[in-house]
Amino acid sequence: MSRIVMNQLTHPQRVRLLYKTILRLHRGLPAELRALGDNYVRDEFRRHLTCNPMEAQLFMTEWARYASTITQQLGIRGKPKGELGEQIDPAAVEMLKDDQVVQLYELMLAAKSIGDDTSAANDIRSK
After folding, report:
1. Taking burial as the number of CB atoms within 10 A of a residue's CB, which of 2, 37, 96, 112 is the most buried?
2. Count of beta carbons in the 10 Å neighbourhood of residue 125
3. Contacts for 56 with CB less than 8 Å, ≥ 6 apart
4. Residue 9: CB partners within 8 Å, gap ≥ 6?
């Protein structure tokens, strides 16, 4: 979509477009990752319905970056080209609020449990 058209959209329209784009991109993920990703995206977009404008801008920027990354990793055909995802910057983790760290940890456990149901339980026990 061209930049001119994007500038003419209202904020709710831009949010909806990004949300639907991400869900569409998730169609190229393996089934387990798609389910996890779709649920996480739905939850995050719902949580940010009433955020302040500064948080909304950061939210949109980060999710647009995510969509761009997934697009590059899935390629034109929509199938993974190698490994999916990227390492998180430790400096970025340091800037997270406590509830965000908990949420990130829970997401990590859910992602690890997709491949092996016992790995998440082992991670919890080792902490």
Report:
1. 37
2. 7
3. 11, 48
4. 17
| pLDDT confidence of residue 65 | 92
How far apart (Å, rounded) are the C-alpha atoms in residues 96 and 61? 16
Structure tokens at 1: 């979509």
Instruction: Confirm whether pTM is higher than 0.70.
Output: yes
DSSP, res 26: G
Q: Are 25 and 70 in contact (CB under 8 A)?
A: yes
pLDDT, residue 127, reads: 42
Whole-angstrom CA distances from 120 to 76, 107, 113, 126 are 33, 10, 5, 10
Give the other-Cβ count within 10 Å of 63's Cβ. 19
What is the H or E stretch that residue 24 is in? helix 11-25
State the amino acid at position 48 in one-letter form: H
| List of residues 6+ apart from 111 with CB closer than 8 A | 33, 36
Q: Kindly report, residue by residue over 40-50, the tens digit of the pLDDT.
A: 999 999 999 89
Give the end-to-end CA distance of the chain in Å, rounded to a whole number.
Answer: 46
